[in-house]
Please model this.
Amino acid sequence: MSIEVTDLHFSYGPVKALDGVTLSLGGGAVGLLGPNGAGKSTLLRILLGFLPAARGEGRVLGYDIRREQNRIRRSVGYMPEDDCFIAGLDGVSFTSYFGELSGMPHQEAMKRAHDVLFYVGLGESRYRLLDTYSAGMKQRLKLAQALVHDPKLLFLDEPTANLDPRGRLEILELIKDIATDNGIQVFISSHILSDIESVCGSVVILNKGRVAAQGRMADLRATDFSLFEVRIKGESEGFRRRLTASGGRVEVTEDRLLKVYLPAGRDPMEIFRAAVESNVQVRHFVRSQTSLEDIFARTVGVD
Amino acid sequence: MATIREQGYSHWDGRLIERKRPWWPVTTMGIRLIFRKKNFRLLFAMSFVPAVVYLVGIYVSERVEDFKFMVRGSAQLLKIDPGFFKSYFTLDPLLFMMVMLMVFACAGLVADDLRHNALQLYFARPLRKMDYILGKAAVIAFFILLLTLIPGLVLFIFKLVFAGSFALFRSYPWLPLSVIGDSLLLTVFFVSYTLLLSALSRNRRYVMVMIFAVYLGTDIAFGIMSGIFKSPYFALLSIKANLQQTGAVLFGQRPPHAFPAVLSFGVILAFCLVAAWVLLRRVRGVEVIK
Model:
């Protein structure tokens, strides 16, 4: 197993970011999915040793996440979510610099930087200053610096963030190539379901700091549901109880919008019938436009 | 946009090395980046003017007879003793040039990394927080030592060479140690000062202003307060005055301000400790907002 963690806990002050995460992940490309604030980036940062876990244990590539951070960092590549670069450097100096910091000899790092930049499609722009790179180029550059020391495991945090559709496809194609044809294990954190679907064979779904589901994509996709946004006038408690009793699930958002999850194949009219029986008026009813990861999380029945 | 995958992925067949000094690439890259700035090179060259003038002074001191027409009654100024070295190390223009080097070369050392979120890239490598700070500190140390330790030792050696004797060394055998000691003190101070201010902001220009303004401001505050209250203790407010006070003591000279020099050492030490504390808090792989 490349990543194994047991009962991992971490809090930002009073906010629990990870609440007893236990995982065991093998090879290939694994997606880490979940809504914003689910704890995906926190988990990656703990695995890399940026943050100390309050409780729990873990191993990455067999190295202890508390005691062998340097060995982990030597063996993994990390592509952060944020835009990050060093002003005044060109692409090849930047990439070779991080190769050197990983432990590559200077000449080797420089040679390897050229190869990796060609691989990610920045060969022609490798001598340009990073300040002049577009968002898509910076994203590829981040991938290049993560690959320069030929890691065994790649951590990619939102690799398609801020990219146009074409750029997104190109990055995904690269990641797929890395994971499938080159034997590098890839752990991708994203809140975009389609990205994970297109690249990963298996997935871990985090929700509110807990593992909501994990397994092969095909298995998880088997479940289905319908999600509706409902706004009512009147007392919502009885309405919610009725829907829950009939097998649905109801969530209330901060602006008092009700998210109603009905099992697949159920008639949406059940929502109206429950409203009539609860003596409330339905003022707003729409099939949900919420994010994919939310729907996906609901599909596998997470709380 | 370039075509993707201009070439396929190939594995690297080399072996990663475990560096004894993992901070070394940070230092070399920092120095390289600074020398890429064209304006900096001119400033850097100018900062050696005091050293060159003092070197000429040493040469003239050994050839007073030849330069009688120039030296006239001021031959005592060219007496080469610890006072001569102290005057170099505490020279206003030298300290000012060091501050200017910090302003134009080193202000962005941490600030730029904070601004461009580069810290997480560093700490995703086998690099500890201390390695990162050491790497950045060594960049500053490189420039400060080039202006202090190297000229100090060169002046000492040239004095021996020009004199053709070890008289200076025999009279003041501790002088090289004073040169090393004051150089290290200045280095530690400027490393702390610059890294502290650089870590306080994500904006390099703001840091540049701060480095200059704090140095100048503390000296102005000293001037105003001592003018009003007529107390030498207000020199403790001034960065420059404290460095001159400690410099004088390290060269065995009378301190310029009438208070125990240990107080100035205390101020500098306290400043460095505060800087280290702030740095350790500001430099981290991820921004944790609680």
About this structure: The mean pLDDT of chain A is 86. Chain A has eleven helices and 14 strands. Chain A touches chain B through 60 residues (CB under 8 Å).
